[in-house]
Amino acid sequence: MRSVACCEGEIMRVVVADDAALFREGVARLLTDAGFEVTGKVGDAQALLELVRADPPDVVIVDIRMPPGFTTEGLDAARELRETHPGVGVLVLSAHVEPHYALRLLDSDARGAGYLLKERVTDLGELADAVRRVAAGGLVIDPGVVAQLVGRKRVDDPLEALSEREREVLSVMAEGRSNQGICERLFLSPKTVEAYVGSVFTKLGLHQGPDDNRRVLAVLAYLRR
Amino acid sequence: MRKLWLLPGLLAAAAMLWGGYAVSVPALVLNLAVGWSFIGGGLVAARRRPESRSGHLMIAVGLAWFVRIAGAVENDAAFAVGVATKTLYLAVLGHLLVTYPTGRFTGRWQRVVVVAGYLLTVPVNVGYLLLTPLETQNIVVITETVVPEVPVAALVVLVGVTALGLALLAWLLSRWLRAGSVLRRDLGPVVWGGAAIVLTVVITYVGALLRLPSSVQVVLAWSTEAVLVVWPLALLYGLLRTRLDRSAVGELIVELGAGLPDDLRAALARTLHDPTLQIGYWRPERREFVSADGEVLHGSTYLESNGTRLAVLVHDPALEPELVRAVAAGAALAVQNSLRLEEVRASRARIVEAADAARRRVERDLHDGAQQRLVSVMLALRLARSTDEPGELLAEAQAELGRALDELRELARGIYPVLLTDAGLGPALTSLAERSAVPARVREVPAHRLSPLAEHTCYFVVSEALANVAKHAQAREVLISVRCAAGTVVVEIVDDGVGGANPAGSGLRGLDDRVAAAGGRLVVTSPVGAGTTVRAEFQDLGESFAASVDSDG
Q1: Min CA distance, B282 vs chain A (Å)?
Q2: Regarding the domain delimited by B418-539, which CATH topology (the fold level of the hierarchy) does it fall under?
Q3: Which residues does the UniProt record annotate as the domain Histidine kinase/HSP90-like ATPase (chain B) (predicted)?
Q4: Closest among B550, B450, B409 to A76, alpha carbons compared
Q5: Fold of the A13-141 domain
Q6: Under an 8 A CB cutoff, do A100 and B423 touch?
């Protein structure tokens, strides 16, 4: 079995929190198969917080809706972990295509956080990619959420000034991908991607942030305004 | 102050008791009773109907009655006063009868009759006093005396009074015949009592003219006085009956409180004793008041609620306006309640219908969508089991499941906006605006959480309004704002579309129902060509809790 190494050459350690046992076990197995080490599986937010306190993993995958209230316990736990354990990446799984929830994870200096639709776990490549990016301090926003933001009807829509390719680049950028990620995703050369990114920012009148995360936040803020 | 009104009677009693003549007890009692009953009845009437002068005239009759008792004092001057004013009360009585119930002249001939009546009393009596040598005698007490020769002048007076009395009788009778049932009821005691008095006076005078035996004349004089006592009592009964009418209004209110009777018209007619009464309800589509028989009605008394005329009453104009107003107010309350109830019933039915329709839609969406896709997935999996190369089938199944999930997610969102409870109105409305088919912006939302009912109402209003805009308005942009001040929530959705929205259309109707269910009201302003503003206003009666203000929104 191949193993996924973290920055220091060790196997990446993941905790899965979901109240549905079948889903929890399924995700754990997928991750194990993909070479991650699942160090814990819990059914509610309280247990998750205790587990992380006792043995911090690299990444936690947490369902947004869990006992006891079945509202946003997972999201709240994720926000708490960002305070107490900034080094732990948090990937929130949700059934809601709501930018609001995704953006609650991302404050101005957000890092290592992600919001994915639950069903994405069936695409092992996408799941593993998201876990790795979050572990590395990156941001992950579900394509469905981005699609809603990009697809919003606007008066004098500035996005209409973008070419179709530029819009694709914008969307993938908003999903939290680096230029390298955009290259892989859209099958473009690094130089071409750089050019597209540059023209998107120019056309929208945006400033590229000092790092990828700032860039994502700027794009999301622009789309949400 | 009112006790002062007893004074004339007391003076008269003193005059009769100690005036120097022997006055029998029945005569004393009868004289006092006549005077006081007129004054008392007049006082009550003047207070009850200040707009009418009849009360004052009744008091005047009583005073004129007492003045003539001066003749009971054994003194020349008192005798002169007594003789001069002996028949004055009859003139005032005529004045009262002719001008009843207003106490005011309404025509020239009325004035002529009344002035003639006054001229036939005091001036004639004074002339009699001056021209005829008389011995002072008790003129108050009725006694059998030797009938003197009637002088020609007196004969003229007697004939004049008789003619006037007969004219008055004829006029009363014709008035009675012309009156509607309400006026008859009102006039009854006055007319019959008055007619009896006039009749006895006329008969007395005719008796004097015909020189009937004095024993007969005495009986006639006594009967005149007896009628004079009873008549003000009849008037008092009339007044008392108005009181009874008022208590009938109370009964009507109690009856209406139990619900609008099947025949409101009959109930009102019964209470007002006006069988001709008609009621016309406002038909907004015809802009007319229409009776149950489809007749267009015009009246002067309206059943009003908050300045809106719900119905009109057509009634006998003789009805006491105050009484009609009281009845109309009670009836208005009942009609308004019934209209409200009708509205609530209709709105409740529509809400139930809308809920049923929504459930049908959900069933159809589930049945035609997700359920269908799940069947395909099952089929694909079944096929995959019996094939050597299941890869393509499994991929197909996975894709189909993905579509089913998408549909279920949208469906769940439509059934209940979880964001609303999780995060509040701001994020929920922002999400609605992001999904709106017409560009929409949320301009203003309260920073604090409202009660769940208020938040749901706001969300529903915005959601439905956005759907309406997308369907009908051809708008370029929609602006959404929610304000909350002092417990009043105002939701406003303004578009810049073609306007001309029909508030009775199903979409706006549903909104109206929803807002009404929250105790508020919906105002749609939609001039053709100038956009549409949907404004809902209601009280947030639920607990308003200040939850953590969402950074977003």
Answers
A1: 46
A2: Heat Shock Protein 90 (3.30.565)
A3: 459-538
A4: B550
A5: Rossmann fold (3.40.50)
A6: yes
CB contacts, 8 Å: B405 with chain A: 119
Residue of A44, A46, A133 lying closest to A116 (CA atoms):
A133
pLDDT digits (tens, 9 = 90+) for A77-121: 999 998 899 999 999 999 889 999 999 888 767 889 999 999 899
Residues of chain A with CATH 3.40.50.2300: 13-141
Tell me which chain A residues have a C-beta less than 8 angstroms from the C-beta of B413: 96
**How many Å apart are CA B274 and CA B270, to the nearest integer?**
7
In this complex, the residue of A72, A101, A154 whose CB is nearest that of residue B439 is: A154
pLDDT digits (tens, 9 = 90+) for B7-35: 888 888 888 888 877 778 888 888 888 88
The full DSSP string for A42-73 is ESSHHHHHHHHHHS--SEEEEESS-TTTSSSH
Q: Is the pLDDT of residue B310 over 50?
A: yes
| pLDDT score at B550 | 42
For position A171, what pLDDT does the model report? Answer: 94
Residues A151, B203: Cα–Cα separation, whole Å: 107
B360 near B333, Cβ under 8 Å?
no
Q: What is the pLDDT of residue B135?
A: 64
Which residues have C-beta within 8 Å of that of residue B488, sequence separation ≥ 6?
Answer: B537, B538, B539, B540
Sorted by where each begins, the domain ranges of chain B are 2-243, 259-343, 369-415, 418-539
A147-224 is a CATH 1.10.10.10 domain: yes
DSSP annotation of A176: T
Does B259 score more than 50 pLDDT?
A: yes
